[in-house]
Amino acid sequence: MAGQQFQYDDSGNTFFYFLTSFVGLIVIPATYYLWPRDQNAEQLRLKSLRRVHGRCLWYRLRLMKSQQSIVPTLKKAALLFGWVVFLLLAYKVSKLDREYQEYNPYEVLHLDPGATTSEIKKQYHLLSKKFHPDKGGDEAAFMMITKAYAALTNEQTKKNWELYGDPDGPRATNFGIALPAWIVDQKNSMLVLLVYGLAFMVILPVVVGTWWYRSIRYSGDQILINTTQLFMHFMYKTPNMNMKRLAMVLTAAFEFDPRSNKEATIRPTDNIEVPQLIRELGNINVKKKEPPFCYPYSLKARVLVLAHLSRMEISEDLEEDQRFAVRKSPALLQEMVNVGCQLTMMANSRGGFHAPRLVSIENCMKLTQMIVQGLQETKSPLLQLPHFDEEHLRYCVSKKYKVRSLQDLVSLKDSERRSMLRFLVEEKYDEVISVLGSFPHIAMETKLQVLDDEDSNNITAGSIVTVTVTLTRKRMAVSMTFIQKQSQKGLRTFDSDPWTNCFSYWYEHWENTLLQKLCFLLCTIYMQRRSLNSAPRYPPPPPLQDAVAVPKEDDEEGSDKGSESDEAEANKDSPSERDEESDKQSDTEVDEIEWEALQQSIQRREKALLETKSKVTHPVYSLYYPDEKQEWWWLYIADRRDQALVSMPYHVCTLKDTEEVELKFPAPSKTGNYQYSVILRSDSYLGLDQIKPLKLEVHEAKAVLDNHPQWDIPETEEEDEEQEDSDGIEESEDDDEDND
Q: Is residue 74 domain-shared with residue 155, that is, in the same domain?
C-alpha cells in the first residue's frame, strides 16, 4: 500500500499471543477427550462381569491393574498444570492490551473531554511544574504532557489526532514474528542459529528416520514384514500343514526374537527351566535342525505355547514370558490365515504351484481357539467351563447321558443336567450354568443369488454368485429356556399342523409304552424335515388381484348396440382375457417388489461401507487367556470334497446381535450340481463351529445375441429414412440454385 510504513515490534509481545493460542489449542481438546470423567466406570464394568468372568485370568489381571493404576491421577495433574499455564498466559496478554489502546490527550492531562482552552493551559502549567526534568521530574512523563498539550492547542497536531488518532500523524504498522525479544536480539544471533541447526538438521532427521525405520518393518496389522514372509515361505513349502508343524511355524515368528522385538526377553534361567519343561511335555521335535525352528527364541516360545495348551504350572518368570507369547499368537495366526488366502488367490489366478490345502487354513483357526481356551485339540469342549476336570468327564460321557459337547449339555432338562453334575455343589453348579448361558448361539441363514442379473435365481456358468449370510447371535441361556419350556409343555407346543396334532394325540394315548417312544421319534424326524422345508428359499409372490369387475350396462343401451359391440363386450369379459390381465398385473407387481428389494440391498451395502462399527462385541469366557478377548468369527465357503476354498474367509468382528455378510465367488465353468459348505468358525470357543450345506445348480449361460430385437429397423422405416434423406438433399440443391 502506497505511503504505508512498517515498524518491527521489538517488544516481544506478539510471542505471548502466539504462545497463549498454542497452549489453548492443546489444553481445551485434551481436557475434553482425556479428562477421566468417571474413575469408577471400569470398576463398575468389571463388577457387572464378575458373576460370569470372575475366574478368568484376564479378569483377575485387569482387576489388579485397575486397582493399582495411577494413570487417571497423572492425567488430571497434567491437565490442571496445562490450565494453570494457559490462565497465566491469558493474564499476561490482558496486561499487554494497555499498550495498544487509542491515544487520548485528555487522559494524559487528567481532564474531562470538552475542557476549555483556559482549563487546558492551567492544567498543563501545573503538570509541567511537577514533571519538569529541571525540577527533578520524569522526563518521559513530561514529554507525554507536552505532546498532549500540543494535540489540544495546536491546529495541525489537533487535526492529526482527530484524523489518525496520533498527534504526530499516521502511525507505522507494527509487526512481529511471534518470538520472544531475546531471540531476535543481535547479541544472541549465534546461539539462536546453533539451536535452529541442532533442531532442524539433527533432531528432526533422527526422529523422522527412526519412525520411518520402525514403520516399514510392520504391516497394516502391526505384524513384522519378516514374519509375514516367513509364514508365506512355509505355507508355500508345506501346503498340507498339520497341527504340530503349524505350532512350530507360529513360534518361529520374529515377534518372539529379542533382536527384532524388544518386548521378547531371553533370561539366564531359561537354560535350566526350558529343558525341564521339554522333558515334561515329551516329543516336541527338539532335535529338528531346520532353521529357524532350532533357534533358542523359537524353541522357548514353542515350549511356552505347548505348556499353555497343556495347562501346566510354570515359574513366575516363565509365566510372564508365556503370557506375552499367548497374547501375540491370535494376531499371528490371523496373519497366517491371510497369507493362506493370498497364496490361494495367486494359485487360482496364475497357476504353477499348489495352493495351501483347506485343512491348513482351518488348522490355523482351530489353533486360535485352542490358544484362547488353553486346551489341546483332543480335549473335550466341556473343559472350557469352570470346575470341570478330566475326571468329571466320565459322568458326562456315560451311556445314560452321552454328553460330549456344549450343545448336548444345553439340550438336557434341568433335572437331568443337575443329576449328571451331582459332583458340583449348588454354588459351583449355578456358576457353571451362568457361564454356559453366556456362551454364544448363532443362527445362520443363507440366501443364494446372482446380483445385477435379469434372473437373479438362475446361476449360469462363470457368473458371480453372491451368498448373503445373516448371522443372529443369542445367548445359550435363551436356548436352555426354550428347551425347558418345550419339555414342560410336551408335544402340544409344536403348532397347529395336522400331523403334529396327530402325533401329539397318540403320544398322550400311548403313555408309558414302547409305542410312545416310537411316536416321539417319528414326530422328531417329521419336525426336522418340516423345519428344513418350511422356510421358503425365495419370498412367495404376492397374491393376485381380482379382475376388475365390469359394470353391467342398461338393457336399453344394450338393445341399441349392434352385434359388434356385443362381441367386443363378450371378448372383454372372457375368462382368458381376465387371466392375461391379472398375470400381467402380477408380473408387474413382482418386478416392482424385486426392484425395491434390489434398491434396498444396494442402499444397505452403501450404508454398511460408510458406517464404522465398533469391534467390541462380547467378552470371551477364557480361563487362561491373559487379555480380554472379544468374540470374533470366520465365515467362508469351502468345497470339502476337493479341500479347497471357494470364497476367502471373512473375519466377522462386529457381530453383537445381527450381522449380514455377503460372500462372492465365481460359479464353476461347467454345468451341473455342486455341493459346497458355508462354514462359520469361532476364533475363541471350541465346539461352536457351524457347517451348513450349500447346493449349487449351474446352468449353461445364455448365448450372446448378435442382433437384438430392439436393434432391428423395419424395412419400411429404412425406406422412409432414405426418402427423407433424398428429399433433404434435393431441397438443399434447390436452395443453392435460388441463391445463385
A: no
